[in-house]
Write a structure and sequence with these properties.
Helix content is about 60%, strand content about 5%. The chain is mainly α and about 160 residues long. It has two domains: about 100 residues, no CATH class; about 40 residues, no CATH class. β1 and β2 form a beta hairpin. The longest helix has about 80 residues. The chain is rod-shaped, with a radius of gyration of 49 Å. Keywords: Coiled coil.
Length: about 160
């Protein structure tokens, strides 16, 4: 690379002063541009770091949320296993345990709801009969046996 050398020896004093002032002005302008560029670089750097920290924070919260969901699911599974273990323990240690005790330990109701006692009647032969409105004692439909011919004639309009 060749270095171009100006013929300074041939320049007059006013030309030298003009060239000097032009170079000094050019130097000051370059220094201003350098400072402006450095400020822009700092601003870009701070924005970049801010965005990077936000992304990292968002990723951390997402990971924490996933961990939280996994822990909740695992807790539910463990609670179910604990109830099952209590129930099995109760049944295997005392097979004659009452359903009320089992429901108290496991938190589940094992009773079947039955209709009120007033709707069920026992006939003289020992069969349970569902009492119909208006029937007192002898009428009704048996749940233990097939209907008798006499009751069919009574209900049938044949």
């Amino acid at each position: 690379m060749e270095v171009v050398r100006y013929p300074i020896e041939t320049w007059s004093r006013p030309q030298l002063e003009d060239n000097y002032h032009n170079l000094v002005e050019e130097l000051q302008n370059c220094q201003k541009k350098i400072k402006e560029n450095e400020k822009e670089i700092k601003a870009f750097h701070s924005r970049f770091r801010k965005n990077l920290l936000q992304r990292k924070k968002n990723n951390d919260t997402t990971v924490e949320r996933e961990k939280f969901d996994e822990c909740v699911k695992e807790k539910q599974i463990l609670e179910m296993k604990l109830k099952a273990a209590k129930h099995q323990l109760l049944l295997y240690t005392n097979p004659m345990a009452r359903a009320a005790t089992a429901s108290a330990i496991t938190g589940r109701s094992t009773f079947r709801q039955q209709p009120p006692q007033s709707t069920w009647r026992t006939r003289a032969d020992g069969a349970k009969v569902l009492a119909t409105p208006g029937s007192r004692g002898g009428g009704g439909v048996s749940i233990d046996r097939a209907p008798m011919a006499s009751s069919l004639k009574r209900h049938c309009s044949c």
